[in-house]
Amino acid sequence: MDRLYLNQLIAWKDADDRKPLVLLGARQVGKTHLLEMLGKEYFEDFIIINFEENQDVHSLFDSNLNPDAIIKALCAFYNITIQPTKTLVIFDEIQECPRALTSLKYFCEKGRQYYIAAAGSLLGLKVNSQSGFPVGKVNLIRLLPMSFLEFLKALNKNQLLEYLQSIDSLSPLPEALHLQSLELLRLYTYVGGMPEAVKKYRDTDNLIEVRQIQNDIVKAYEFDFAKHAEKNQIAKITEVWHSIPQQLAKENKKFIFSVIKNSARAREYEAAIQWLIDAGIVYRCSNITAPKIPLPAYTDGNAFKIYLLDIGLLGAMSDLSSRAVLETNHLFSEFKGALIENIVAQQLIASGQKSLHYWTSSNMAEVDFITSIESMLIPIETKSGKSSKKKSLLVYMNNYKPDITVRASPMNLKQDGNISNYPIYLLERFPITTSI
After folding, report:
1. What is the DSSP letter of 426?
2. Which of 125, 210, 290, 298 is most buried by a 10 A CB count?
């Protein structure tokens, strides 16, 4: 399936100052498939070296990390010819061979004539620890699950996709297109954005098989805990992971450690939560003590929410039926708003937000997300229905007088006084207007 990310990879290929590429992302978000697409469509030839499948190839990196020597050894081992300007060399599951990861430094310093692209599960753990990772010597691209717009592309809804991408003002969509987009968003809420699940739905229209794939991915993540985490953290990581649906089902979605178990304390689980964040399978949304720039400087480390990387996996972990998601008359009202908040978090990350924050006021008001764009703070309140009530947003507006405020809801795109209403399916394009 095509991904909108392919344009970023093409730009990497054509860049004059190109370094080796590392494609980050959680397991099964489509990293290898995307690199394979790049190789097939934009190079004369490509080779995938899978360090997990073939342990013998590890020895080629044991002694000499000179790029020419490595390429020569790979050519002999696989009986192929690697042409510097014409062959894409893909190091897959590179985390299984630390010396191959280290070699990227030397490909940057001495072998930029070669096109080297690497991918692997849990590489985010190495990036954030900087242990054995060639910091500054690679180009990094983080691959996320398929966004709603990519979901439309996968389902061949190309004309609707083009229409949504062309919107350049806050004028309402024609009602028929708005309703069609909402129905597709409802479907996306169940199927999610994991490429295998999307492909299964596209090819079979079978939601039962989609859910089986989602359950298998959840299990694969849990196997990763056991395989890659420190032994004294495995149980804690698993406990945090299993608590996420329950955490989000609460009216107040702040992460509460006693939900894990009565005796749980923050200091016991900090490392476990960070492991999940670094692995790329959850997002942390931090409470801010004051809406000021830069947001990270005003975070309350003791108050935060945790969202899942994919709305479809959240539904699978919560055992939500397709009827609850697809047939309800109140879009996203099931599960106490957890679905809408999680999907908004995903859309904001997909739009380019590097981190997530929210604001509270003495337990009297809460704005679900606070974003910063060009040094401007923008509050975003989510609504699961078509009600225009905005108590928390009004409290924030009265206190801080923001220039722009946003409500994300199933309502049509429009300007409602000084509040910009974004339908959830367009939040990925936030901000639409260039006036921000």
Report:
1. G
2. 210
Residue 306 in tokens: 């945790």
- The identity of residue 220, as a single letter, is A
Angle in degrees, CA 159, 160, 164, rounded to 5: 120
pLDDT digits (tens, 9 = 90+) for 258-309: 999 988 899 999 999 999 999 999 999 999 988 999 998 999 888 999 999 9
269's tokens = 């689980």
Q: What is the DSSP secondary structure assignment for residue 289, as one 8-state letter?
A: S
Beta bridge partners of 370: 379
- Alpha carbons 367 and 274: distance in angstroms, whole number: 24
Q: Which helix (H) or strand (E) holds 81?
A: none
* Max intra-chain CA distance, the chain: 70
The per-residue pLDDT for 362 is 75
pLDDT in tens, 337-383: 788 899 999 999 998 888 999 999 877 788 999 998 888 899 999 98
Beta pairing class for 376-382 and 405-409? parallel
Task: Dump pLDDT digits (tens) for 184-221.
Answer: 999 999 999 999 999 999 999 999 999 999 999 999 99
- Alpha-carbon distance of 147 to 380, in angstroms, equals 19
Q: Which amino acid is at 176?
A: A
What distance in Å separates the CA atoms of residue 62 and residue 193, rounded to the nearest whole number? 38
8 A C-beta contact, residue 285 and residue 246: no
Residue among 119, 81, 242, 173 at smallest CA distance from 414: 173
Return d(Cα 147, Cα 172) in angstroms, integer: 22
| Peptide bond before residue 172 is cis, with ω within 30 degrees of 0 | no
Quick one: which of 136, 119, 130, 106 has its CA closest to 35? 119
The answer to whether the predicted template modeling score (pTM) of the entire model surpasses 0.85 is yes
> 374: number of CA atoms within 13 Å, CB side?
6
Domains along the sequence of the chain with CATH: 6-142 (3.40.50.300), 148-429 (no CATH)
What residue spans of 123-206 are helical by DSSP H?
123-129, 148-154, 158-166, 175-191, 195-204
pLDDT of residue 388: 58
User: How far apart are the C-alpha atoms of 361 and 291, rounded to whole Å?
Assistant: 11
